Amino acid sequence: MRVEQIAVFLENKSGRLAEITRILAEKGINIRALSVADTADFGILRLIVDKVDLAKESLRAGGFTVGKTNVIAVEVPDQTGGLASVLKVAHEAELNVEYMYAFVNKSSDNAVLIFRFDDMDKAIAVMQQSGFTLLNGEQICSI
Amino acid sequence: MMWVEEIESLPRAGLESIQLKRLQALVHRMYDNVLPYKKKMDQAGVKPGDIQSLKDLSKLPFTTKDDLRENYPFGLFATPMDDVIRIHATSGTTGKPAVVGYTQADINLWASVIKRCLTMAGVTRGDMVHNAYGYGLFTGGLGAHYGIEALGATVIPVSGGNSKRQISIMRDFGSTVLLSTPSYALNLADAIADVGVDPEELKLRVGIFGAEAWSENMREEVERKLGLKALDIYGLSEVIGPGVSMECTHSEKGMHILEDNFLPEIIDPDTLEVLPYGETGELVFTTLTKEAFPLIRYRTKDISRLFLEPCGCGRTLIRMEKVTGRTDDMLIIRGVNVFPSQVEHVLVGIEGVEPHYQIEVTREGNLDVMSVLVEVSEQVFSDEIRVLENLSKKIQGEIKDMLGVTTKVKLVEPRSIQRSEGKAQRIIDRRKI
């Protein structure tokens, strides 16, 4: 139940994000979710896209450093306490969040939470045992 | 007293005859005691007896930093180790330092040349000398220290760092003379304002600054901020340390070389021909009087000029222009010698890091800041910030261990560092000195 995410190294200079999105648009790649983590000197762009391998190859050909990692996508009702309920379970299971981001599913009343935990296998088991819905890559792309 | 020794005002002919006698004795000593140099002389077909005039110096082979490295650590010493009483060292191009040794006579000689330099600057027994050069393997601190004592002035061995404490000491002890790198002097000047000390409370009169390049603008600034007369001192560890040459209070054309001990030449770094006085080229020194670690025709890689015109102070010693550059790619960062190859050595030692790098030097406030730009390869890249920050810290830590200099590390995109055909441009120096 893992979702493939690509990560791109962003040097702290203008126009880099524009260049990445230009390349993706040119190749007909659709971005489903993204987040940018930044420090004073550099950033990391994390993307969930419909064509993972094509995106990775195209960005690499464009001169970017690209990595592929697995994350999990948890679907929760888009209402107060939705995120809190997931984090409560994670905390009780002593799972540590490396990073997370979220988007709202406009075709339903749900929100999708993207997580990278320190222990991904355990996280998948814990989430499933606690009754949360985990989405796979195809499901996210069909949203 | 204007100068310590008569030798400083001898007519040129008298000085040159002393230099020749010392040179002849040196060449014999080297030939008999330093096997690597004997081999060089044999290869060049020169015998000690061939040195009949100072002009014959040009027949002798050069000594280079490579020779020092090949004979690391003590291979070029001319006396038994039993006679060596002190070791100093500098950073070297591959991480191996250049090691220099001193006999008791060498330490005495060093003290005497520093004493003469201090006298040129008008320092006397009555002065309180604040010695803020680093103490340790670096020649600056201890070299100056013994000379200040030899003069009979009072030395405060404060060494570098902790600017606030330095200022309290300056005020409370009544320091009259400051010895430091010029950038550290400016740093101290700024700290005075931060500490809230009134510059009027300080008794500083003279500053003797060296170990890095500085400009007339910096001189004007440090003189104004610290209320002292700023003078330039030159030296390098291989030759003896500080005390090779010194600006006098009259001089407007460089530093007097203590040529009765250090015989200078200027050469064309490409053809290796000796250039006439007044022409710009690479400075070369022969140490006429050192025992443990004498050098014949040591190529400093410093670019300068020599002037023979008489000086207003009465000294007949030749003067050298402030060093205007280097023939190699050595950088001086806060008084520490840095070669790009050392940085490269660190980078190739870290798994996954590409040896594509660039060194950017800027001056923030009064301090040199060195940034190393490193390309992020897929091998080291991660989607987690923490991993990349740890990589930066690791590179920073290893460079600090190797060079003793704190650097900033900037991670950049692959292929963003310019690849040039032939020699890569490794250094971008944005300092406006």
Word description of this protein:
- The complex is a heterodimer of chains A (143) and B (433).
- Chain A is α+β, with helices and mostly antiparallel strands.
- Chain A has two domains: 3-69, VC0802-like (2-Layer Sandwich), CATH 3.30.2130; 70-141, 2-Layer Sandwich (Alpha-Beta Plaits), CATH 3.30.70.260.
- Helix content of chain A is 33%, strand content 39%.
- Chain A contains five helices and seven strands.
- In chain A, strands 1, 2, 3, 4, 5, 6 and 7 form a seven-stranded antiparallel β-sheet that branches.
- In chain A, a hairpin with a 5-residue loop joins strand 5 (97-104) and strand 6 (110-117).
- By secondary structure, chain B is of the alpha/beta class.
- Chain B has two domains: 6-328, Rossmann fold, CATH 3.40.50.12780; 332-429, ANL, C-terminal domain (GMP Synthetase, Chain A, domain 3).
- Chain B contains ten helices and 21 strands.
- A nine-stranded mixed β-sheet of chain B has the order 4-3-5-6-7-8-9-14-13. A four-stranded antiparallel β-sheet of chain B has the order 10-11-12-15. In chain B, strands 20-19-18-21 form a four-stranded mixed β-sheet.
- In chain B, helix 1 (12-33) packs across helix 2 (35-44) and helix 7 runs parallel beside helix 8.
- The longest helix of chain B has 22 residues, at 12-33.
- Chain B is globular and about 70 Å long.
- Chain B starts with 11 loop residues before the first helix and ends with a strand.
- Classes of the chains: A alpha+beta (143), B alpha/beta (433).
- Chain A binds chain B through residues 5, 7, 9-11, 16, 37, 39, 41-42, 44, 46, 60, 63-67, 69, 98-99, 116, and chain B through 376-378, 381-386, 388-389, 392, 410-416.
